[in-house]
């Protein structure tokens, strides 16, 4: 099996990120296991210091910079989990990090990224304008931009999750992974498949704007229309000039399942009510596979990656109140 990301680079990433990113717990999920009729365990990336797995990729990418680039610093335009990860890893590893944001980003988000030690530059009034400023600084001043998923060091960093899963759950036969740009699933597949080719890797996207799925269908990266979703961390395309994740997903991922928006809140609720864990929409989305008609696609020993927990309390409360877990999509139970 050919992979663009070597197992060796993932082992190297594990050493590089130790001390910045956590080796996260894989916890039992007894209520979900009983309901699903198989052993379900949860990989809690929600316990990372920035609340999401992206710290792994960011820490690896920064650790691998050469001294001159470290000095010059890195830049990105994300105000979400990637921006947080770059800011935090920069602070820990002594790499100057700059995050470009539009003037529309709320003050508390600006303050949070600043508090992690990053420099914040407010430019323009949209995310696109902030990204344009990043591109300008890269071209004009040689800044290093660290992208959120399509970068070998980022993918190798996320791949460390796969090493941990194989060690902690030797019976593992299915891994369920939230999927957007594909850095997370490409990393995990690159770690798991060489050692355990029979383990199925299943990607979960929302059915609104599933860019990777649409690209696989088309045979090349395509753009999709982005729509608002409770799984906001899964928004965005894979990049028309995608160099790594599209290929790796095409090669190594067994299945992609698209989940309707209404099941995302139900998944958040199930995770919280049944097991007591808080996650954002993108983080909980894998639990939707415990609904019919998707349940049959899982094996007997299933790890679900719970990718992040950064949701504002108001949205969380709304999601929990609006949904009732495992009803709308489930089969009626008679007798
Ligand atoms: C970024 C992100 C994802 C998707 O990761 P990709 O590498 O883009 O596929 C899933 N969940 C959370 C919480 C994220 O922040």
Main sheet: strands, sense, barrel:
6 strands, mixed
The N- to C-terminal Cα distance equals: 49 Å
Q: Could you tell me the number of beta strands?
A: 10
List the ligand species. pyridoxal-5'-phosphate
In terms of DSSP E residues, the strand content is 5-15%
**Whole-angstrom Rg:** 19 Å
Shape: globular
Number of helices: 14
What would you call the structural class?
Answer: alpha/beta
- Estimate the helix proportion, in percent: 40-55%
Mean pLDDT: 92
Low-confidence spans = 327-335
Record the strand order, biggest sheet. Answer: 1-2-10-7-8-9
The succession of helices and strands, N to C, reads HEHEHHEHEHEHEHEHEHHEHHEH
List the helices and strands and how they pair.
Blueprint: H1 7-17, E1 26-28, H2 30-36, E2 39-44, H3 54-63, H4 67-72, E3 74-76, H5 81-93, E4 97-101, H6 107-115, E5 119-122, H7 127-141, E6 144-145, H8 152-168, E7 174-178, H9 183-195, E8 200-206, H10 211-218, H11 245-252, E9 255-259, H12 262-275, H13 281-284, E10 301-306, H14 313-322
Parallel strand pairs: 2-10, 3-4, 3-6, 4-5, 7-8, 7-10, 8-9
Antiparallel strand pairs: 1-2
The structure holds pyridoxal-5'-phosphate (PLP).
Descriptive account of the structure:
With 335 residues, this protein is of the alpha/beta class. It has 14 helices and ten strands. Strands 1-2-10-7-8-9 form a six-stranded mixed sheet, with helices on both faces. Strands 5-4-3-6 form a four-stranded parallel sheet. Helix 1 packs across helix 8 and helix 3 crosses helix 8. The chain is globular. The C terminus is likely disordered. The protein binds pyridoxal-5'-phosphate (PLP). Pyridoxal-5'-phosphate binds next to helix 9 and helix 13. The site of pyridoxal-5'-phosphate has 19 residues, from helix 9 and helix 13.
